[in-house]
Amino acid sequence: MRDAIFIGIAKSRVKGLRTRLGLAGFLGGTAMLLEPSIWPVVWFLVYFVSQIIDNNLFKAALKNPKKQGDEAKFIIAIALSTLIFSAMSAYTWIFGGEEGRIFAVISICGALLHVTLQLYNRRTYLFAGLLPHALYLLFLPSVTAVIEPGHNSFTLFIVNVGTFVFLGNLAWAVRQNNQSLLDLKVAKDEAQEARKLAENESAAKTNFLAVITHEIRTPMNAVLSAANLLKRTPLNDEQSDHVRMLSNASEVLMGLLNDVLDISKIEAGKMSIERAAIDLKDLVTGVGQLWSPQAQIKNVRLLLEIEDDLPSQIMIDPLRLRQILFNLLSNAVKFTAKGLIIVRVYRLPNASGHTELRFDVEDQGIGIAGDQLERIFSSFEQADAGTTRRYGGTGLGLAISRKLAQLMGGDISVRSSLGHGSCFSLSLPYDSLLLTAIDMPEGFDAVEADEAPAEGPRTILIVDDHEVNRRIVSLFVQPLGWRWVMAENGQQAVDLCRSEAFDIILMDMQMPVMGGIEATKLIRNQDGPNQDTPIVALTANAMEHHQKAWAEAGVEDFLAKPIDPDLLINTLIAKSRINPLRAAA
Ligand code: ADP
């Protein structure tokens, strides 16, 4: 019974105590003026006591909503309170002459209104509050007509009619109000339902994107890896050209796929920002080096200017910082036909007195018209319609970059002059990037590149349902002189792990019969020689929550498809450990 409506009523009753006592004081005082006697004083004292009881009753109910007796005591309290209150109106009606009667009618109507506003939500309480006032209003004129025969009974009859009209209006207003509340509730329920539906649809869209990305990235991974392998074989010039075209086109497609995935992750609020200690100069130089061949081909000079006394290490999400700088530099190179591109990294105090770390990418390219400057940061927007025709692109790069910058607590701004060049500036809050004593690397360890295997060749278990992928991985590890065993699904991997010891396991995620997560968990928990064997997850599924699932299942590291041959080899070398049980066998 102690529901939200009751709580609302109880609260307003407790809160309204002073108002009721104040009104009672006014009523009693006026009665004293109209007809001085002891009764208004007695009445006020009685009303005061009744209100204290009423107040304690509702206060206790609010304090402990579960432990109150039955509903009757609240109904009686309300009825008693109104019965006592309007008794003073009866006094002014009987003893106050004409003015007293007018005052009585006004004060009872006011009380009726007050009770209605306070109790309209619960019918039983409303009746308990209304009935005593209504009875006074009806009976005072009627009784007077009977006991004062000389009185103008027509006037009294009119007062009665007025009472009915007033009560009828009050009932109508309550009904209307309740109907509006009901409509409002229905509308609210409908809106909530629609929101839930939209959220479900959005979740389904994200999921759909994850699945589609996985499905497209898997064959793309095979294409890219095969092109990489082909590059390592002896080729004549024409063949080299064709392979380059193959891998370039695959990389463009992978880039587009990654962009679409990123924007949908950001929009679904699922993009999370990591923090790791990185060498700032290395990162910026690395991105610059990626673009310098392209710039050289176009005869554009690419300069890096990094402030001298910047700390060598900062805490940041290296992947996302690299992605932003890569996008800005890719645009600068794309839209500059001749001249200079300068990448500057420096500290700058901002308007609010804090220091920012700024990354400027300034070019002497085609520039952007003033009215386009904000538009280019929206998804799928380009400065003008001819851009795609001339330069290609999707208009996603800047939208993703700005959102990533904002997720890192910063922003991207642009200054540009049409025909003269542009300067894009990424600014990040400098203090948050500084290393502190507690900034220990978290999660997976960084891979030490080119770390030599200490104790000779290893045995690797390659688990993937795609034959092409298994072959590609085996070809990559071949130059290391490693031995490999293959499994087509998780179940086969679990069975193999019972009897044979491996130094490292490369595990795909989505496979028929048994997926990678389940297989990883079983290998970790079963008796056998591979309980502690490092497991590296290899997957085209780049969604964040999948990575978490892998880590929880017990994998040591995570590699995204398409396989980067160097990263794969470095990871395998760094993560594999000679299995003592294999060495002993
Ligand atoms: P995309 O380059 O794939 O079209 P972006 O979001 O990276 O998408 O850029 C959006 C648009 O902003 C570009 O199409 C181009 O019109 C404009 N733009 C971005 N960078 C530059 C630049 N450095 N110089 C001139 N225009 C630029």
Automatic annotation (TrEMBL):
Keywords, sorted A to Z:
Kinase, Membrane, Phosphoprotein, Transferase, Transmembrane, Transmembrane helix, Two-component regulatory system
Enzyme Commission number, as recorded? 2.7.13.3
Keyword Electron transport attributed = no
| Response regulatory domain residues | 459-576
Is the keyword Membrane in the record?
Answer: yes
Q: Which GO terms describe its molecular function?
A: phosphorelay sensor kinase activity
Residue stretches spanning the membrane:
21-38, 74-94, 100-117, 124-147, 153-174
User: According to its UniProt record, which reaction does this protein catalyse?
Assistant: ATP + protein L-histidine = ADP + protein N-phospho-L-histidine
Instruction: Indicate the segments forming the Histidine kinase domain, all copies.
Output: 211-432
What Pfam family does this protein match (any one)? Response_reg
Q: Which Gene3D superfamilies match?
A: 1.10.287.130, 3.40.50.2300, Histidine kinase-like ATPase, C-terminal domain
Tell me where in this chain the PTM 4-aspartylphosphate is found: D508
Q: What is the protein name given in its UniProt record?
A: histidine kinase
Q: What organism is recorded for this protein? A: Asticcacaulis endophyticus
